[in-house]
Design brief:
- With 329 residues, the chain is α/β, with parallel strands linked by helices.
- Helices cover 45% and strands 15% of the residues.
- The strands form three sheets. A six-stranded parallel sheet has the order 2-1-3-4-5-11, with helices on both faces.
- α5 packs across α12 and α10 crosses α11.
Length: 329
């Protein structure tokens, strides 16, 4: 069955324009309306009740799907979004899923559309969940918290690569020449962007980027990787893909009788509330996830108003604490 987005692609217009044509908006230019009408006929498109409710603003409900809720970033983003949605007068229906639950994702989409939501927001940092959403053909606007812009949905994200580059630049400015990276799972888009930023900054600044070890975001995986790194004398700095893994790395170095930052400098990512209370306090890249959630809601409102919402990339901030220092050797 053809969707509103299929019609928009065939006619070369936005899905908001198709919605206005379907609902008889007199402000649509005749030439544009003619293109949409042709596409509707060729694709045998039949507007859904949900699309009609959206156009007439009869629904004040939004759907949110998250696949990373146990972690600090997704849960904090959802909290910021929920607060902004409530202040805007919307009710929010939430679905939290496992990362690899394709069937659950499709069922959640069907359920939310069946609840007549005005839009669906995806706070899911893994590429597989995003791909399922892209192929779903749902008839309501989609807004996602990711950096991979594509026709048919709107995105809001932090510039993950820029944050990683700032971490590397800080370490290089201190004199570090071999910076290991403890990366997150390969399927997570944020982790891939941070890894890319690390590689590109190392190449640009002429430092070694051959030491890459992959964890699963947890302190336990950081501790396991840290034990491998702590026996090496050639690595003087470690850039971790998140603060939880950084905590595990610090623990492993302490267990090995090494001192942070005398023997190794460590940088995390996210700036979780506990980061400033690590021993030593953790240098990290701060992301304001509450602000990201609010920006998602601002984008939803723009889309529902028929405005063109550009891809929004927020800037992370390097927070320097006492886990980084000039290398001792």
């Amino acid at each position: 069955m053809a969707t509103l987005f299929d019609v928009a692609a065939a006619a070369g217009v936005s899905h908001q324009t198709v919605s206005r044509v379907v609902n008889g908006d007199p402000t649509v230019r005749p030439a544009t309306k003619a293109k949409v009408d042709v596409a509707i006929e060729e694709l045998n498109y039949r507007p859904s009740l949900t699309a009609r409710a959206l156009a007439s603003r009869k629904t004040k409900s939004l759907g949110v799907i998250s696949t990373g809720f146990p972690f600090y970033g997704p849960s904090s983003t959802m909290h910021g979004f929920n607060g902004a949605a409530r202040r805007a007068g919307y009710q929010v229906s939430m679905a939290t899923l496992d990362v690899d639950d394709r069937q659950g994702m499709r069922q959640a989409l069907d359920s939310l559309v069946g609840q007549n939501v005005a839009a669906i927001v995806l706070i899911a940092p893994d590429a597989e969940a995003l791909e399922v959403l892209r192929r779903s053909g749902v008839s309501v606007p989609l807004v996602t918290a990711d950096s991979e812009a594509e026709d048919g949905h709107h995105t809001v994200s932090f510039d993950q690569a820029a944050g990683a580059e700032a971490a590397v630049e800080h370490l290089v400015s201190l004199g570090h020449r071999r910076i290991a990276h403890v990366a997150g799972p390969d399927g997570w888009m944020d982790g891939r962007d941070r890894e890319r930023g690390w590689r590109e900054a190392c190449a640009r600044l002429g430092v070694d980027s051959t030491v890459l070890l992959r964890g699963d975001w947890t302190p336990g995986s950081g501790h396991r990787i840290g034990r491998e790194l702590a026996v090496r004398d050639d690595v003087t700095a470690v850039f971790c893909g998140n603060d939880q893994m950084a905590l595990g790395v610090v623990h492993a170095y302490v267990d090995a009788g090494r001192v942070v930052p005398r023997d190794v400098s460590i940088v995390g990512f996210d700036d979780i509330p506990e980061a400033e209370h690590f021993v030593p306090p953790l240098t990290t890249v701060r992301q304001d996830f509450e602000a990201l959630g609010r920006r998602l809601m601002t984008t939803v409102e723009a889309v529902l108003a028929g405005d063109e919402a550009p891809v929004a990339a927020l800037d992370p901030e390097l927070v320097v604490r006492r886990s980084t220092a000039v290398p001792a050797r």
